[in-house]
Amino acid sequence: MKKILMFILVIVFIVSMLALGSGCKAGAAEEEVAEEEVAEEEVAEEYIYVSCMGNLEFFNAHKYGWQWGGEVLGVKTDYVGPAEYDMTAMLAAFDAAIARNPAGIVVFAVEPVLEPTINQAVAAGIPVVTILGDLPNSDRLAFVGSNQFDLGYVGGKNIAEALDGEGKVAILSIPGVQMFDDREEGFRAAFAEQPGIEVVGVGDTKADTVTAISVAKDMLTRNPDLNAFVGTDSTGGIGAATAVKEAGLVGKVLTVSMDRNSDVLEKILDGTLTGTVAQDDAAMPFWALLTLYHYNNNQAPLTTDNKAAGALTGPSVINTYVNYIDKTNAAYYLEANKIYTGD
Description:
Layout: H1 2-42, E1 46-50, H2 58-73, E2 76-80, H3 87-99, E3 104-108, H4 115-123, E4 128-131, E5 142-145, H5 148-162, E6 166-173, H6 178-192, E7 196-204, H7 209-222, E8 228-231, H8 234-246, E9 254-258, H9 262-269, E10 275-279, H10 283-297, H11 306-309, E11 317-319, E12 322-325, H12 330-341
Parallel strand pairs: 1-2, 1-3, 3-4, 4-5, 5-11, 6-7, 6-8, 8-9, 9-10
Antiparallel strand pairs: 10-12
Helix pairs in contact: 2-10, 5-6, 7-8, 9-12
């Protein structure tokens, strides 16, 4: 009897020890999983957007889209650069971004002076995507932004339609700057499709609202039968709208602007401006981030080893949509502007 009792006790002891060991292993496994999850959080990829002129309302949509994109993809994002148009400060911010060794950089390619730093980042193994403006002679991976010609063409088509294909039009621009020259070319291409549309001249606003108003007033004086103004930027649009309003010609001289700044949208809603052309600004940084993210994580197998083969895969240019805004949809854009600033 004692032997049987002893045997039972030994079996119970062994089963207990096995259960205890299993529990310890399970606990250790759970701790390892938890540690791995923490480690994954700590090494989340970081992407940096380098820009300038961040004080402009235009860039609010970019900041919002950049942060939103990071949340969607589960990566870290940061937006850096001077509030003003300061290339020295922007280059310093770019250098500091490279020093952080992020998974990728998006840069507002506003001037060729940025090319060497773009190349420096790429040489350090950091892919770079240009946004808004492009520097195709650099080593950038891709460009994401609007086709500048399309911006003018869409605006030209809409104002020509509003004029029923006939009328005299003045262009307010910043001649000599490629971006705005391309937009002007787009306007002219749209007008060329309507034999009844005549471009009477181009005024240089020098990207200054006061100058734009003065130039628009002068063009109205020299062309009393003018039917419309088009601007290649918001400065030209606001300048034209102000000059037309002060001359008591709202509704008689149509005005088309560029971009979706709140002051532009408000003038559309009150009837001072006829319309404006909007870039796909909130989506641009998201597509730029997607391009970098997929380059790092989801490259198509173009070769057995794309990096070793020096093979690039994916888009080199992504042109985002161009939209026209008038009284029928301006309120939606204005509400979005408030969201971008947290109002």
